[in-house]
Amino acid sequence: MDRREPGARHGLSRRGFLKGAVGAGAVTAITGYEVFALQPAPPERGGSVLAGPAEPLSSSNERVDVLERMRAELIRALAKPPSERRWVMVIDLRKCVGCHACTIACVSENKLPPGVVYRPVIEEEFGTYPNVGRRFIPRPCMQCDKPPCVPVCPVNATRKNEDGVVVVDYDQCIGCRACLTACPYGARTSDFGLTYGADNPVRDGTIAGRDTAGRYEEISNFEYGEPREREQGKSPIGNARKCHFCLHRLKVGQLPACVTSCIGRATLFGDANDPDSLVAGLIAQPNAMRLKEELGTQPRVYYLS
User: Fold this and answer.
1) Which of 175, 163, 126, 166 is nearest to 146 (CA)?
2) How do the domains of the chain map onto residue ranges?
3) Phi, psi at 158, each rounded to 5°
4) Of the four listed, 15, 60, 88, 207, which is most buried by Cβ atoms within 10 Å?
């Protein structure tokens, strides 16, 4: 048996093989929407977009990651008026491995304190021993088109913005938590002002000391594009908090943190009003579903099963 590296007998390096020069096996392992070819956009749309299924490498085609396609589609969507785009998230449950990278990325991006989680990953065991398995279900805010959390807010702090994303006005919120009760998905949490370093010992000059480590938690975050220092008695402490599709990233042409950190490319994002977008094609598939559709909330988060 030839035990040399794949492609070595063809005179190729491992890097060259994996890039697809003769790596048919590597390409087949990347399924569906994970690899796309760089193709010119129709003249009426201007520029270039990443679209279509993978094609063999040539001088005119270059394979790119699905993240690059979504980023190009995001920039294209940002050129349209907000009323003409519809942000949608698609989560492929067949690809989620339960690594919780999206959860950690969200915590890091939005500097979330203990007890506040925008994107938990629900784990479920199914089957009967010994034929058992596990499935993983990431659960961000569903960004409902008819959100139950909006009409129950007594001060109009929870509302849909011009992009159709459900947001929380931290300066308006009074912390009554009525929206937490109204959300059928449990997608909202309350910020009680807890910190990770509260129980750390006070030790001057040490990285893990309460004062040194605590300064990190007081650094401003930039949710909704506004810098907010985390101080007791000031928002968002005492407020309801939730996923907001990383609006501060979208505005500058960056995908949500949970999308870019997904190792299995299980989380996808884009403008469903763009017929050529990746998400528009995926939500039209027969295996696309939404949680608790019978409630009439019309979620913007779809799952592929």
Assistant:
1) 166
2) 86-188+216-305
3) -100, 125
4) 88
